[in-house]
Prior knowledge:
Mean pLDDT: 77
Low-confidence stretches: 179-202, 357-367, 404-408
Structural class: mainly alpha
Amino acid sequence: MGVKNRLYFKVYATAALGFSLALALVVFPKTTFQASLDGLRLWFEVVLPALLPFFVMAELLINLGVIQFLGTLLEPVMYPLFRIPGAGAFAVALGLASGYPLGAKITADLRRRRLISRIEAERLVCFANTAGPLFIAGAVSVGMLGLPETAILLLLAHYLSTIMVGFLMRCHGSGRQETAIMTNTVPPINLSKTPLAYAAADITQIGSLLYDAVIQSFKSLAFVGGCIMVFSVLARILDLVGIIPAISDLFTSALAFVNINRELTGAVVTGLLEIDIGIQAITLTQAALLQKLVTISAIIGWSGLSVHAQVAAMIQGTDIRIKPYIIARALHAVCAGITAALLYNPVRYFWEQFGYSLPVIANISFTRPSITTVLSMSLGMAALLGGILVFLGLFAWIINRIVVLRIKP
């Protein structure tokens, strides 16, 4: 198929998909409206208050110049292990703490400021864009499964497989020599200036910086909400027209030798589209607990096409390609599922011997959490993480000054 034919195919396929979706909205108005309302409620009550403090904090810390000193401190660790500059540790830290899609957003910001090359950005976005601990421990283990003791298994499986993926993706782009130069970027950060120097220079503009940070954060989160609503509707339509049940039957027949529950395969197909809806469907099946945990761990690693669309939007305007990220998510799903299966018996033994529980998180309702509850927890984590990052940046600056004093007469 030639280039022209491929272009025509993409145009007609996109038009057909759009027409089919519009037709489904007319045929199933009540169902699609309820699906979009569920997606909107999920975004407004959980996603928005959980991510907003982290988005604003990330914008401020980048503009105040903390990031390059954190990079100076962690460069000897990040590059030998993952072939990512030390500045990438900022994206990894915030991505691990807040969840999707902040890691992708910060990676794109680093690329725009020419702190990393394209290949390094593609490695970083595969490593830094992960699920947050509040989502895994609170929303999944407590709110959906109703089993707080499963949090340690899901957290270990997810973050160990994250490290595996980061180590595997270090081979991406091997042998290519690239610089951090990219057209249409914002001015690069001056690496000779300290966070204190940035703060002193911009102290009169702190109001403007805060305004820009909040506006940009809301723009990004508005798109996240749109993705959640669209994929919520799409998953419901595919279920109504019989596509998801048909795929479920196909997978059940192909995997009959491992005795996979039919309900479970249908829920997994839904999870491939939207992570929250898929995991909720998995928890409602009659499958064995081990099968539920393995599939949930794999779905969290995959993260869903909804999150992939959010990542594509975050990296728009850069030269970062989405294909390596999709490959990394597939690797993450496989690694997370296998890791969860391997850790199940040791962690279960730990449950039985020591009575592991999460009393603080278990006391909070994550099934229908209030906005103030989620926002307060997110603000606390963002403030703690921001303080740690600022401290590390200042620590790197102090160490640098000490070294300069020692080598100068």
